[in-house]
Design goal:
heterodimer; A: 120 residues; alpha+beta; hypothetical protein PF0899 fold; 3-stranded mixed β-sheet; elongated; B: alpha/beta; Rossmann fold; 36% helix; 22% strand
Chain lengths: 120, 219
Amino acid sequence: MHEFSLAINIFDIVLETVQKKQIRKVYTIKLDVGKLMAVVPESLIFGFETVSEGTPLEGAKLEIDEIPVKVRCKKCGTESEINEFIFMCPKCNGVDLEMLSGQDMQITSLEVEKNGNHNT
Amino acid sequence: MEIITLERKVLQRNDEIAEDNRKLFKEKSVLVINLLSSPGSGKTSIIEKTLEHYNGKVNISIITGDVQTANDAKRIDKFHVPVVQLITGGACHLDSTMVRNALKKLKLDPTEVLIIENVGNLVCPSSFDLGEDKRVVVFSTTEGTDKPLKYPAMFHKADVVIINKIDLLPYTDFSLNEAKKNVRQLNPKAVIFEISCTTGEGIGAWCEWLLNKAKKSNV
């Protein structure tokens, strides 16, 4: 279950941001998760809940967007989405593909409340 | 409520340390292999056969990762090569920090090839760059022809795929052609070796590839 390690990494990055930017509360953590990361969202959420319990991040929700695997054919330049994990250009059957998306995981944004900003 | 844009890679820290490892390996001209498979596919046996094949003629060091026990290190010990056992104590994959720490116990200057045997798992280790040059993924004839399709990320990122236990082909419904087709679908460029650690078949070809890459990494 690599989701637990990923949850710890998310926790560290968000906590660092909270401390740097004087954030009072984190409501939502938005994540882009590439399909090739093989992440089970429920496990990631469970992992994060466990890691954040009793910390300033307790109660923050993970909002996970799955990012499809997209490639560009180096031969004919066609961009396509890889479904069923067949890594081949649908136009020219080329196999030399540049990965455009879907292989990593990113924290895109946070919904927060900053210190001294209680009226929103 | 306020929205803060972050755009930070979750594994950024791991990637940075992996890059440091990679720089160090390059500086010391060490070819580094990340050896991956599910439990019981034969990673340790492949290491044993590789060490046996070279019989000390190539300087190989080993880092071996397991959730528990130092059994793998003990198996490798008899070849008198430098070996570091990492016991993750539950973690299902190695990360770049564990490898960096293990390097403190190895002498990289004389090492030509460093084989890092990852924890047996076809899902979790896939996203964790260790700083390796090549990823070698093993699966065996007793695991089923469709294994690659079940673990697309792992096989997609492989530089080499080894199909082990081909001596057992007569006793299974495993189809070599079908298996290779499945690998190709995910990863048209991977080099594929068919081997048996029991009979030694195919070990020579794999070792030749390894030596060839090692020479290149030394240029």
